[in-house]
Amino acid sequence: MKTDPNTHRATIKKKIHATGKKAAARHSEHKTCADCRAFHAFQAWHDQKLTPSFNWSIDFTNDVNIPAGKRAVIELVTATISVPTGEKARLRFGTSLGMAPSNFDLTLTPQGTVAGEDILMATHTIRAYSDHDIGFDVNRDNAQTEGNATICISGYLVDA
């Protein structure tokens, strides 16, 4: 049996008027933020030319600047890596909590070939924490050619 929404609302109004109490709001009446993380948000990006080398480190530590007593929560990582056709690359994301490092291997998905370069992309929604180090390592299978990496992160700061 379905309840008519208008009848249900009328019944609630009668009960409220009879008791003299206000109905409970679905949200707080005092001013609080709906998503307080937005007030402590950060985002940073790097576009790095990959000169001939097997490994490239791309450091975000100074871009995020985590103050003492705070911790970064990284929620999104997106990257585009381009290498000559037929070559491969790997992307590793690193953070630290105290003296403990953490490494996350991120999946790069081929998107096709443009102007003789294979385009590899990654977009990951994650929850990674750091109180200091934030960086990436791009590992390649050829140390003789050039490539490019564009990496962006987004997150917010919380009390540690």
How would you concisely characterize the structure shown here?
By secondary structure, the chain is mainly beta.
Secondary-structure blueprint:
Blueprint: H1 5-19, E1 41-50, E2 55-59, H2 61-64, E3 70-84, E4 89-97, E5 100-106, E6 109-114, E7 117-130, E8 134-140, E9 147-159
What would you note in describing this structure?
- The chain has helices at 5-19, 61-64; strands at residues 41-50, 55-59, 70-84, 89-97, 100-106, 109-114, 117-130, 134-140, 147-159.
- It is mostly beta strands.
- It has a single domain (33-159), classed as Jelly Rolls.
- It has a five-stranded antiparallel sheet, with no helix packed on it.
- Strand 4 (89-97) and strand 5 form a beta hairpin.
- The longest helix has 15 residues, at 5-19.
- The protein starts with a helix and ends with a strand.
- Mean pLDDT is 86; it is low at 8-13 and 15-30.
Q: Main beta sheet: strand number and arrangement?
A: 5 strands, antiparallel
Number of strands: 9
Helical residues, percent: 10-25%
Spell out the helices and strands N to C: HEEHEEEEEEE
- Beta-strand content: over 45%
Q: What would you call the quaternary organization?
A: single chain
Order of strands side by side in the largest beta sheet?
1-9-3-7-6
SSE class: mainly beta
Number of H- or I-type helical stretches: 2
Radius of gyration: 25 Å
Question: Which spans have pLDDT < 50 for at least 5 consecutive residues?
Answer: 8-13, 15-30
C-alpha end-to-end distance? 51 Å
